[in-house]
Write a structure and sequence with these properties.
The structure holds 2 protein chains of 2 kinds.
Chain A: E1 3-5, E2 10-14, E3 19-21, E4 24-26, E5 33-39, E6 46-52, E7 60-61, E8 64-69, E9 74-79, E10 88-96, E11 99-102, E12 106-111
Parallel strand pairs in A: 2-12
Antiparallel strand pairs in A: 1-4, 3-9, 5-6, 5-10, 7-8, 8-9, 10-11, 10-12
Chain B: E1 4-7, E2 10-13, E3 19-25, E4 32-38, E5 44-51, E6 57-58, E7 67-73, E8 76-81, E9 90-97, E10 105-107, E11 111-115
Parallel strand pairs in B: 2-11
Antiparallel strand pairs in B: 1-3, 3-8, 4-5, 4-9, 5-6, 7-8, 9-10, 9-11
Classes of the chains: A mainly beta, B mainly beta.
Chain lengths: 112, 116
């Protein structure tokens, strides 16, 4: 069965600094997708970044980038120049076909 | 971008009554939709897959008779919590896969259910 593990329940970072959130997953498939979703206090799920497993190049979206290590089944999220609006729960997710599996989440605090 | 709506955004009901939650894809069609349950400070737990024109597929441990799912059209799925009890109080979220190649899910804003 596919699983997604986020080992950091909570993290804090100083505003304008860089923080990395960890995620590992377990699958026997070779073709799949990985995502990081953000859930702010409003509880609306917001897509932060996506990665196709067949692509070796790490995805980047403005201040957000990933370090995708397929052999190690690792998919970490780096947030650069952290802003107060980045404070939220972050969920790492795996999907193949349509079903999505979430990790338990990491709550990110931004310190002013 | 694709938008998914949910109605109501919050509902309070008495124990023993039934509550219906709607999930709509506003600008795209969805033959499949997903229902999740989220407890405070926890992750989203997939409850079931809603399939247009056929029966829903429930995850292990989810009571089919408690959580009735109907996928009435290509843009609407409903979740009915039957004979609700206080332990059914939770945050319910739906999602629908986009039509692009990225396998992305679009999430509704969620429904907070409180059973008294």
């Amino acid at each position: 069965a596919q699983t997604v593990t986020q080992s950091q329940p909570e993290m804090s970072v100083q505003e304008a600094e860089t923080v990395t959130l960890s995620c590992t997953y377990d699958t026997s498939e070779s073709d799949y997708y990985l995502f990081w979703y953000k859930q702010p206090p409003s509880r609306q799920m917001i897509l932060v970044i996506r990665q196709e497993a067949y692509k070796q190049q790490n995805a980047t979206e403005n201040r957000f980038s990933v370090n995708f290590q397929k052999a190690a089944k690792s998919f970490s999220l780096k947030i650069s120049d952290s802003q107060l609006g980045d404070a939220a729960m972050y969920f790492c997710a795996y999907t193949r076909d349509d079903k999505i599996i979430f990790g338990k989440g990491t709550r990110l605090h931004i310190l002013p | 971008g694709a938008v998914v709506s949910q109605h109501p955004s919050w509902v309070i009901c008495k124990s023993g009554t039934s509550v219906k939650i709607e999930c709509r894809s506003l600008d795209f069609q969805a033959t499949t939709m997903f229902w999740y349950r989220q407890f405070p400070k926890q992750s989203l737990m997939l409850m079931a897959t809603s399939n247009e024109g056929s029966k829903a597929t429930y995850e292990q441990g989810v009571e089919k008779d408690k959580f009735l799912i109907n996928h009435a059209s290509l843009t609407l799925s409903t979740l009915t919590v039957t004979s609700a009890h206080p332990e059914d109080s939770s945050f319910y979220i739906c999602s629908a896969p986009g039509t692009g190649s990225y396998n992305e899910q679009f999430f509704g804003p969620g429904t907070r259910l409180t059973v008294l």
